[in-house]
Amino acid sequence: xxxxxxxxxxxxxxxxxxxxxxxxxxxxxxxxxxxxxxxxxxxxxxxxxxxxxxxxxxxxxxxxxxxxxxxxxxxxxxxxxxxxxxxxxxxxxxxxxxxxxxxxxxxxxxxxxxxxxxxxxxxxxxxxxxxxxxxxxxxxxxxxxxxxxxxxxxxxxxxxxxxxxxxxxxxxxxxxxxxxxxxxxxxxxxxxxxxxxxxxxxxxxxxxxxxxxxxxxxxxxxxxxxxxxxxxxxxxxxxxxxxxxxxxxxxxxxxxxxxxxxxxxxxxxxxxxxxxxxxxxxxxxxxxxxxxxxxxxxxxxxxxxxxxxxxxxxxxxxxxxxxxxxxxxxxxxxxxxxxxxxxxxxxxxxxxxxxxxxxxxxxxxxxxxxxxxxxxxxxxxxxxxxxxxxxxxxxxxxxxxxxxxxxxxxxxxxxxxxxxxxxxxxxxxxxxxxxxxxxxxxxxxxxxxxxxxxxxxxxxxxxxxxxxxxxxxxxxxxxxxxxxxxxxxxxxxxxxxxxxxxxxxxxxxx
Length: 510
Fold this sequence. Notes:
It is built from eleven helices and 29 strands. The model has no long low-confidence stretch (mean pLDDT 90). It is an alpha/beta fold. It has three domains: 11-235, Rossmann fold, CATH 3.40.50; 243-372, Rossmann fold (3-Layer(aba) Sandwich); 393-506, Sandwich (Jelly Rolls), CATH 2.60.120.
């Protein structure tokens, strides 16, 4: 996908004197953007701006890297671009350039425009496999030659992070965004201001560092350095195209949604929803989404859909409210607490490599720290379903948790039952739910570890949808690597339901 030779030749800064010995080597990768712009006519500061050379950058920041004993190299796009013109081919080219220079430098600083900086830092985090060195993305709101520029401090801070061996800072083996005195995980950052010198934030992840009078790094938040003896850093060279975004709003109709999802060549879609992942309860939306995800009539192939929230903080919890229960039924993947930038770039990356259930699993689990939890779904329709005859006991077959799930990492288990109904309206009746119970029946004791919860008729809402936290029960009743079965037992009544969904939230693996 990337053009060949998108970058020019690498140049190295000359040594200040013969006795100067560098302690670290850092490669500056210049893509364009405000930070590296200088007047075309040096004698006329008001002349049009053009990209600076390495020598000109060093003239603007005399002694950059000298005092810290950091040797600088620089490679630039042959045709530097405004960050608004950045595309997936540029992301791949940057990643491949890091791979090309990887063995010769201790760290990298990517100079980039601010408009799409969070997209690029997210994309690089997915493209760079087994990264063991810092890749620091930075830029500026004002050109490097402006008297009030923020570029000098941003670049200097980034250089200190990338040249960790010389500055005696912790090694940060991931893509980070350094801007306005804070260090953010690259795939957790989002641009929040077009004018403030603190233009980026990380709503759902604390900053990895603060760069003030002293540099303070949160080592407890950093990803682990990969085993460099076993794994060689490699850059992926493929991303999908045709990923669309649907911003849910009160004017969006099912027909509008359907026309968009049937766009020719569409490979995937991001659904940007209200609150905790909600949209209209109109069942027509669910039918449209279900047809797209399954590749129904009118679709050349399935269209994976990833749900993220319009809110800057918080996460998607589909099924928590009735307004998102239908999305679970439709097979929409949860974006949890992904930023929109991370969701989009993750979809580009994942769709190019996976499909079906494997793709959904990839979208819902963390690859490089982009989300707080992994989510593993177990969804089933009991034999006595919503439209068949009622029975006193609904049971599901034992289902193995998706690949990658470890019970030791479990943080929360939520059980959602959709369309639960009770046949007996005359007597006092209830429904009891068990996990991995042996021969469950109405007389099965509620004192067993497998008993999860009970719902009385008067507690059941009209929709029949219920959500309960069953973390403690799962911990007691389900053994590691054991299939999970669920029983819905009617007491003094027959019961039915539409579907059962067990959501397992786990701490991402190292």
